[in-house]
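Oxidase ustYa
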Amino acid sequence: MTFAMRLSNYLKPLPVALAALFISTCINLLAVRRLRGQKDFDDSHFSYLGEDYPTHLPIYLPSVALTIEDTTHFGISDPDAWPEWRSTDYFPRANGFVRLGPMGRPFGIAMFHQMHCLQMMREAVLKGDSNYHVHHCFNLIRQALLCASDTTLDPIDVSGEGIISGADGIGTTHVCRDWTKVYDFVYENQRNSIWNSTT
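Tokens:
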């Protein structure tokens, strides 16, 4: 067999491989383009009247890592705790409410409602209070935790004698949705003129 014949046999699958490579490249480029354009989704097909609205904030939230830290912030009773926890109700302003749709229909965002509830539960612990609002908040947080179903594994602390002391979660990294994008969205939404025309 001559060199030209061997080369010809060797190159026969090349057009198929090049075609497959071209198709694969096109699919990858389309996927990247779609992901880049996924920062917001089109909610223009919702009227925002009655039950015709999206179930989630119309933004794309990329995944981020959060490593649990043993922080001194957001304590229970120390002097700095009060302004830190109060900030969760007032930043972003209006308890994190947004106005969506052509008429600026108001909506709450679950993340900010849950932060508010943690603040109410903290105050209840300090004051020894147990009212409907606190009960509502305990149930809301319980169900939100179930909904999130975070399955990140926490290493268990075991002594040399084999005694299990539990898990504190410190240093464990969780995969989360980027909450800073929610703050950014709410901040921009509240700067929109729809807030001035509907208040």
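Helices lie at 3-11, 14-36, 81-90, 110-127, 132-148, 179-191, 194-198.
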